[in-house]
Specification:
Length: about 400
């Protein structure tokens, strides 16, 4: 999280400033202030700047303003502040506002009567103070999830001093950016290392902006390729947060290709002591999401069930052998038939071996399910009415999903 245009516009001293364009992207963190006095700004920007266009030392026309909007878009700036008045730029052309809306680049209009030195001082001071506060909050969050504190009382006092509400329940989220090999083996990228850095930077900026928009108490923590968030259960329930996270990740996935995002979600965290447990749960779920090839959607720890036991077995050859003994006969029929049998069995397990519900789940006639069940029994030599064999099938299918190079669906 960080200072955003949304925050700036709410400063009492800056109420004369008006948002003119880019309303959907006003939560992006402002990295610093840049006052543009050259014709072009591209080579002077690093990304995340709030760029001031005064039109005093360098005259600006419509064409130049359009070019500045495009350059700001290319550099992923936080926004443009354009001074207007008789002494500088008389007005912001409609074409510039329309173009900024098209590219989703925020434009703020600042009247010339509002002195630049006061505006930059207010924003600059807020940036420094907020950075110091955010560093303290991030450190507190990190200490909570790693249980790195002398006592629960001490960390609770520190959290209270930082206005962090630990009385609220939270869900912890672990997001892993993976599949780096796709960048390095492809001929598409001239500098894959830079592309990887750019995509990581993009992801953290977008997560920060989303955290600002959702008014999360804790900032996004970054540990290498892993990003950690804390979602407060104030008004939203668990399903609402899962829906929001899935929507966000699907949007980000388009911009982070060919990298993949894997997301684990903890059970509810309700105390200082449970933050570490929640982080461990989110991490376990995220790692299993990788094993199960469940990219770009949340995997709640609560849904893992027996997967937690299987994944914890040190010698992976043991569950693999069990799976082979139970399901191996299906692979002798060829890949196409194996897929049919395995998908049918998985659907039967999900529907507690109810033939009608399984037929509805797979979108086929119940007689087809019955015929497949008969073929499966003939192939295996076991009855699907046998409770012990049903249990073996259920566990083996879970192992198959865990260790297979491709998921069942």
């Amino acid at each position: 999280m960080g200072l955003s245009i949304h925050d700036v516009l709410n400063f009492p001293q800056l109420q004369q400033m008006r948002l003119r364009a880019g309303h959907d992207d006003i939560y992006k963190a402002i990295r610093w202030i840049y006052v543009a006095e050259n014709e072009n700004i591209f080579e002077w920007l690093k990304g995340g700047e709030l760029v001031f266009i005064t039109g005093i030392n360098h005259q600006r026309n419509e064409k130049n303003l359009l070019e500045l909007v495009y350059q700001g878009y290319q550099k992923n700036i936080a926004g443009l502040v354009i001074l207007t008045g008789e002494e500088c730029i008389h007005f912001i052309p409609a074409s510039v506002i329309a173009y900024a809306n098209e590219l989703n680049v925020p434009i703020v209009e600042q009247p010339y009567s509002l002195k630049m030195i006061e505006v930059t001082h207010i924003i600059g001071t807020a940036l420094v103070e907020l950075e110091q506060t955010q560093n303290s909050i991030a450190d507190t969050f990190s200490r909570l999830i790693f249980a790195n504190y002398s006592s629960e009382e001490t960390i609770a006092i520190r959290a209270k001093n930082l206005n962090l509400n630990l009385q609220v329940s939270y869900l912890l989220v672990s997001i892993k950016m993976a599949a780096h090999d796709e960048l390095f083996i492809s001929d598409q990228y001239l500098d894959p290392e830079k592309k990887l850095r750019d995509k990581k930077q993009f992801l953290i900026e977008q997560l920060d902006a989303w955290a600002n928009e959702e008014q999360l108490n804790f900032p996004v923590l970054k540990f290498g390729d892993v990003f950690v968030l804390a979602l407060p259960l104030r008004h939203e329930d668990i399903e609402t947060w899962i829906g929001k996270m899935n929507h966000l990740i699907l949007q980000l996935a388009e911009k982070t290709k060919p990298l993949k995002l894997y997301i684990g979600l903890s059970n509810i965290v309700q105390s200082v002591a449970s933050f570490q447990r929640g982080f461990d749960e989110a991490t376990q779920a995220q790692k299993l999401a990788i094993d199960l090839h469940l990219e770009h959607r949340c995997l709640p720890y609560n849904d893992l069930g027996i997967l937690r036991l299987i994944s914890a077995i040190p010698d992976k050859s043991v569950p693999r052998q069990f799976m082979q003994e139970t399901l191996g006969c299906f692979f002798t029929a060829g890949k196409r038939q194996a897929d049919i049998y395995l998908n049918t069995l998985d659907a039967l397990v999900q529907e507690n071996f109810n033939v009608m519900n399984t037929a509805v789940r797979l979108g086929i006639h119940r007689n087809t399910i019955t015929q497949r069940m008969q073929k499966i029994e003939a192939l295996t030599g076991y009855s699907l009415e046998d409770p012990k064999y049903r249990l073996h099938l259920s566990v083996s299918l879970i192992i198959w999903q865990l260790f297979s190079p491709t998921p069942l669906y």
